[in-house]
Amino acid sequence: MKDKTKKSLKKDAPKITIETPSKAPIKRSELFPFMNYTCEFLFLLIISIALYANTFWNGFVLDDAMSVTNNKFVQQGILGVGKIFSTDSLFGFVGYVNDLQGGRYRPLSLLVFAFEKQFWGNNPHYFHLVNIILWVLTTLVIFNFLRKYIFKDKTDIAFITSLLFIIHPIHTEVVANIKSLDEILSLLFLMSSVTLLFNYLTNKSRNIFLLITSLLLYFIALFSKEYGLTFLFIIPLMIHFFTVIDIKRNLKLIIPFASLFIAYFLIRYSIVGLNNTVSNLLQNNPFLYATPITKLATIMFCLLKYIALLVFPHPLSYDYTYNQIPIVGFGNPFVILSLIIYIGMFVYAVLRLKSKDILAFGILFFMVSIFITSNILIEIGALMGERFLFQPSLGFSIIAGYLIYLGLSKLKRQYRTIGAALIIGLLMILGGYKTIARNAEWKSEYHLYTKDVLSVPNSAIANNNAGVAIINYTDSCKTATHKTENYLLAISYCRKSNKIQRDFFDGYVNAAFGLIRLGRYDEAADELEKLKKLNPNFYKLGNINTYLVNLFSDIAHKDADKGNLNLAIHHMEKAMTLDSTFIGTYNNLGILYCMTKQFPKAIHIYETGLKANPSDMNMLTNLSLAYKSIGAQNKANDINKKIEEINKQATVQK
Fold it and tell me: Which domains are seen in the chain, by residue range?
């Protein structure tokens, strides 16, 4: 009796198999009958390399300084590995705990950079080569997973989806920007993890090594970027949509992954804490002046823009900061449209959850992936960024790939391959052209900043960066052709950044640098005076201020040597205005006043300077002479007595 029961239970137990729930009308490989798995694999391999090969020649750009060239731990190579894993990811750059909310703990990409630095120095081409290789691996892992486990009975969908993901220009920031290796590593390890998990689920021998390796890869992915959190929801969705495993066992399977996430979180917390500090800088806190209502409305506006960039990726930009995307309210029609679209997608996905609709899966993959960087759960220090679409775009590619597949199924059988070739070919031409062209714009900071400022003209950061890039580029030019025009253009960009955001302090400093190069020192000083009124302690102010003080002082001496005393006074007064703590300036300006017989002014300057340094012999002597020149002999005598007392004290001390 017991034996029969056992046999019955064994017979009735569901097998763990992967299946595609959709019953689409096209048979397997009908769109591409001339291509098998190997051909598709090689085709995608070639395309993924070809589209990003030109990034090899690019240099270090944008945030590469934070992660590579100016990160002291990365620059230490292998010796910096300990610090990389024991500090905030920005600590090696800024030297202190950064005030971005939530902290940053992404040591894996920095570890890769440290090894690259160890073996190749700061040669950007090898850094780009590693990005290209890991990007290619990521695309192939995605294709392999989709074809073997998700769309194994409809391989055309796997091929189209993978191709759409590869040719989408939105990925140019991730691949062309060395710093964004963290995005690539995260998706690479996450997709490798689910591949091995599904291999384990479909393996009759239930090789536990596959499950352990899957868990290990998931754990590694967490040290790349926080997207691993989203896969605690995506993995159960994958199992639900593409296997016959029941909900109870599905939830049990996610327990070890959740446990690893908790372990990661505890490690992260022990190193960077929660860091709930709210930045008072608009660049790090885009919702600084937003209300809870306008914050949510602006988030919805950005979420709509994400969809727009996925559908039509033009123009692209590295920056979407203030005030390119202004704070908006729910009266904005685009916010309302965004709410309708996202609510509609969510409702559709929920309603089609039970029927295991592929579109529902693509929608949920996209929405879960985008949620973590949407600023809804936690403010990430940026309104939006194209790199944040790297993982979510896979969900979009699944949706688009499946819709193309369904559309082609409406054609007569003899036209389907031709239709597929035309559609795929057109998308490859458009996406490929945009991708390669965009990669070229990431070649250098000059190329990137001067191009993107035209796409995001209302961004304070973009305008300032364009100005700085033009100044640096013009400084490096050996010929004088167009230098004046270039500096004027740079100054206009820097000043525009301050018109957009009055308290964007870098704009004042960089405008001053441009004006100095044109010899317009008075205007440069005026820029610094504007800055001092807003933030006299701005950390970049000191060096340029000192430089201008010395510059005005040198010019004043040259003016005096030429007999241009009034001009010399003007320049020395400028030096005094910029820095009233330098005693030498008081004495020099007093001398110039005396030379032009402006003795009352000279006396005032000397007395002001002596308040700061009562024992300055040069100023005391000159002050005595100034009093004598206006007939104030008694005051001159008092000053002379003070000089004698100081001399006596100096003699006694010796």
Answer: 38-150+162-436 (no CATH), 444-539 (1.25.40.10), 556-565+579-654 (1.25.40.10)
